Amino acid sequence: MIKLSLCYFVADSTFLAIHHIKEVRKHGLHLISKLACNTALYKARSKKRGSETTEGGRYDLYNLDEACLKETREDDDETIKVYQIQALNPSLKGVLLNIVVILNTRKADGKVGIKILICTDLELSYDLVLSGIITYVFKLSLILMMQNIVLDFRVSKTTRKKM
């Protein structure tokens, strides 16, 4: 018998809450998810007493430090920059998160799109966070495609009977 160990739970949750993280961590897993594009993220700083972290200054996600830049991809239409930081979100009650920020700039008009991915594993590299999300989206797309095929088959079968 083959034993597989699961370490990460990937979820599509733009409106992530602390109870999501607690439930996943209760089972010994780390969460990989996404946050809303307008999420406030703050630099972590240590409290003077104790080991807790508190919020420092707010990150400007559109102007992150170049030291946080992990990858740049360019083609004819766009430039994609991938950054990785550790940050706090006020709604997540002091949980330090591994954040991957993806900035996509269209060359034609200069418009910038943003995606914010999170992971509770502070050591996980940005490329593995990205691959976890990409795998999840691919599997979800396949499931939806298969459901549509089955639904189309059922609809075409019932319309043939009525003719």
Write up this protein.
The chain has 2 helices and 8 strands, in the order βαβββββββα. The protein is α+β, with helices and mostly antiparallel strands and 163 residues long. It has one domain (8-162). Strands 1-2-8-7-6-5 form a 6-stranded mixed beta sheet, with helices on both faces. It is globular, with a radius of gyration of 20 Å.
Features:
single chain, about 160 residues, alpha+beta, six-stranded mixed β-sheet, two-stranded antiparallel sheet, about 35% strand
* Biggest β-sheet description: 6 strands, mixed
Biggest β-sheet: strands ordered side by side in the sheet: 1-2-8-7-6-5
Low-confidence stretches: none
Radius of gyration: 20 Å
The SSE order reads EHEEEEEEEH
Shape designation: globular
- Indicate the percent of residues in helices: 25-40%
Summing up helix and strand content along with how strands pair, one would put the structural category as: alpha+beta
Whole-number total of structural domains:
1
Number of strands: 8
Which helices and strands appear, and what pairs or packs with what?
Layout: E1 8-10, H1 18-26, E2 30-35, E3 42-46, E4 53-58, E5 69-74, E6 78-87, E7 97-106, E8 112-119, H2 126-162
Parallel strand pairs: 1-2
Antiparallel strand pairs: 2-8, 3-4, 5-6, 6-7, 7-8
Write a concise synopsis of the structure shown.
The protein has 163 residues and is α+β, with helices and mostly antiparallel strands. It contains 2 helices and 8 strands, in the order βαβββββββα.
